[in-house]
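Q: Sequence in, structure out?
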Amino acid sequence: MKKYFLSVIIIVLFISFACSSGETVEKGSKKKASNYNSKTDNKKKNKKDTDLIPVSVMFPVRGDINSFLLFSSNIDSEKTVDIYPLTSGIIEEIFYDEGDAVKKGDILARLDDRDALINAKRSKITYEQQKIEFERQKEIYEKELISREEYEKLRYNLEKSKLDWEQSKLLLSYTRITSPISGLVTKRYIKVGNKITVSQLSFSVVYTKEKIVVVNIPEQEKNQIFIKQNVLVTAGDLTMKGYIKRISPAIDPESGTFKVTAEVKDPGNRLVVGQFVNVKVIKKVHKDVVLVTKDVLIYEEGRVFVFKVNKEDIAMKIEVKIGFDDGRRVEILEGISTKDRLVSAGKSTLKNNSKVKLVKSLL
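A: Exactly. Output:
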């Protein structure tokens, strides 16, 4: 009886242990399966993300764009003078140098004036003596104590001495080199102590408030050019407005061009005479049109395309029709609107209906 009871207890314990072990194995198996499935899903998700092509996008804008003729030129001035001395002599003083602003009549330099000053004083004294003598003889003449011939001779001598004095003063003024216009001294050619002659250039002065550019435009554009036509003058990042001031009526037979002079508005005096600039002669203006930067365009066999990204982040290749091109922006006539997202960077690896991932910048 005892043996039978002990056997029953052993069998019950064995069954309990077996059930417990089976449940533990089943839980372990489910846990391992769950971990495996999670890792598989992450791998699929990562693989899916890496398949996306990173791109940057931009939105078209509305604005104005110009059709223009582009030329190269240099800034010039309506008034530029080269100043020569009016007499020979030794340079004693120089009062203005390159870059200095001068007014009309300012003395730029002074020559040795001692000899001219002496002559002026001598002529003045002679004139004053002749004047006194003439006044005295005039009273005598009025009393008819001298002949008319003597009186006329005295008056002639007085006029001659006055002219001599005026001439000596003029020669004295020639020892001062003066500016005939207001502006800036752009070049000084003389030095103190050097002897200068009337054929030697001494200064160059430019009137900076009236700057111009001169361009030569092809003959076939002549009907498109008119007085007061707008121009844009660009030097680096600096852009100034202007207008056409003069148009030559003659065509150069060798180059087939005609000369056009445009005045540049530069109130801040930021452009320098002689500076290299680009000149855009505005032909037409299209206002309030759809504009994009040129980095979104794709040119293929004479056709133009863009990649438009839809709401599902799929890039679709769209053909567009373009209008004016100002070198940086292009007018879009057909194909897109300002609400469309266009690929501006990363489009080289795109194909039609490619799935993309938007990023701020691709460096």
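The helical segments are 2-50, 114-142, 148-173.
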